[in-house]
Amino acid sequence: MAAIALLPLLLLAAPISPPVYPYDGSHALRRTTPHHPRRLPSCLDSQSADRSAHRRNPFPKRYVLAETKTTPAVASSNSSTNRSASELHRSHSHKQRVRTSVVGFITGLLAGIASGAVLSLLFRLVVNCVRGRYRNPGGASIFSPKHIKRAEDLAFLDKDDGLAALEVIGRGGCGEVYKAQLPPDPRNPDRPGMVIAIKKIMKRTPDGAEPTSDEESRLLDKWMRQIRSEIQTVGHIRHRNLLPLLAHVTRPDCHLLIYEFMKNGSLDLVLNGVRELDWLARYRIALGIASGLEYLHIDHKPQIIHRDLKPANILLDDGMEARIADFGLAKEMPDAHTHITASKVAGTLGYISPEYGQTLRFTAKCDIYSFGVILAVLVVGKMPSDPFFHDTDEISLVRWLRKVMSSDNPTAAIDPKLVGNGYEEQMLLVLRIAIFCTMDDPKERPSSKEVCSMLAQIKH
Ligand SMILES: Nc1ncnc2c1ncn2[C@@H]1O[C@H](COP(=O)(O)OP(=O)(O)O)[C@@H](O)[C@H]1O
Ligand SMILES: [Mg+2]
Questions:
Q1: Where in this protein does the record put region Disordered (predicted)?
Q2: Which of 121-135, 191-205, 443-457 is least confident?
């Protein structure tokens, strides 16, 4: 950008200084001697009048005054006058050149700055169009104009009671999740508007109270700003196994994140619900999560670590394909925000790798650990928080699984609802991958790419 800004400066500054030629005293002579437009009358002709003088002096009289070197007599009388005149002329032309250069430089500099500013403005405009896009005065950023065609459709969220009448479909550490339907597209009024999920990220302290001091408010404002910048990144990520963020609305007390509503809900609701998930559906979900994770860890630059991978953050689309939700946002949300209630702590703790407790550093291998727990949940059919594990010696799903898988009867680890479906061998292979992913030493865990290829190799 700086190079682009300086380019016009260089281009403009260069031609403004005039070309400098060395001055010699014969300049006047060379210009006037060769061509005289017409002959002068003989009375005025200095050549004929001074023919005798000419014989003595090879140069006509009128040239003698201009010539300084070849007529010693005249030169001696005029030499000092001519020298000072030429010095005066030289210093004058030098001053002129300096002045022209300075003016040229300043003009070039100003032109460079102006064109640099215009170029950078254009550049930012293009970047904003591509990234921050389509901001409306109400504060909504639309990331998917294909789904949300008009910013006015989200205008109801600018009102204080915009959410009050909406159905609450979930409650997370950061706030409620609401369901709403957008008005139909005016160009296609017969088709009902899109159903969306609105996730509210509240501005509040970890214990849920309002900020009491100025310092606390300042920190919360900073946190809200950081989340906003993460939202801008997340809004542009697209992968078939990641739940896309369609829009973002900023309100003084919260952020509202707009997603497509997943009518099949989240994996935890499905696994705990009445609806049966057969093995092939579970296997496809596992493959989908692994593929979304590979994109976040390996394909996306910079790498995105989810930090809160758990069945509640795996949503299922119309085709029961897995969509990872809440990716890219956990970084700026302290644990107290994501794991706020006692039941959440138990549930979420089951997915957190052991080294995180010691280092408090989240790595991609922490996500792999959480993914391993989800794989285990898909085959075992029980959450880590299931009371079943509290009654075992191991008290943890991961440790219980290791023990059963090394016993004589590893099939005992499989969900009783799935036993006898003919896929026991495949399910045991998936449990082996789960154990591999949940190794205590993060270095021994596979990468998301390896997990994907291991899962894909299981033939059904
Ligand atoms: N886009 C969506 N479609 C349908 N249900 C959703 C959607 N987003 C969230 N939910 C529901 O709301 C619940 C709470 O979501 P969230 O605030 O992300 O909390 P959590 O911390 O449990 O992930 C989810 O577990 C899910 O059941
Ligand atoms: Mg969530």
A1: 31-94
A2: 121-135
Q: Residue 88's pLDDT is what?
A: 75
Query: How many angstroms separate the Cα of 175 from the Cα of each of 195, 199, 206, 208, 345?
Result: 20, 7, 12, 10, 16
**pLDDT digits over 353-378, tens only?**
999 888 888 899 999 999 999 999 99
User: Top-level CATH class of 140-260?
Assistant: alpha beta
Q: If you average pLDDT over residues 194-223, what whole number do you get?
A: 79
All structural domains of the chain with their residue ranges: 140-260, 267-456
Is 153 a residue of the active site? no
Neighbours of 262 (CB within 10 A): 19
What residues are paired with 177 via a beta bridge? Answer: 170, 199
> Ligand 2 centroid to 312 CA: how many Å?
6
Both tokens of residue 402? 């290791």
Question: CATH number of the domain at 267-456, please?
Answer: 1.10.510.10
Which residue, 226, 225, 243, 100, is CA-closest to 177?
243
* Same CATH fold assignment for domains 140-260 and 267-456: no
- Name which residue sits closest to atom 8 of ligand 1, judged by CA: 197
* 177 CA closest ligand 1 atom index: 12
Using DSSP's 3-state secondary structure scheme, residue 71 falls into coil
Q: Are strands 245-251 and 140-142 parallel, antiparallel or unpaired?
A: antiparallel
CB count, 10 Å around CB of 260? Answer: 20
Distance CA 242, CA 238 (A): 7
pTM of the complete model beyond 0.85: no
The residue-averaged pLDDT of 383-409 equals 94
Is-contact 438 376, C-beta < 8 A? yes
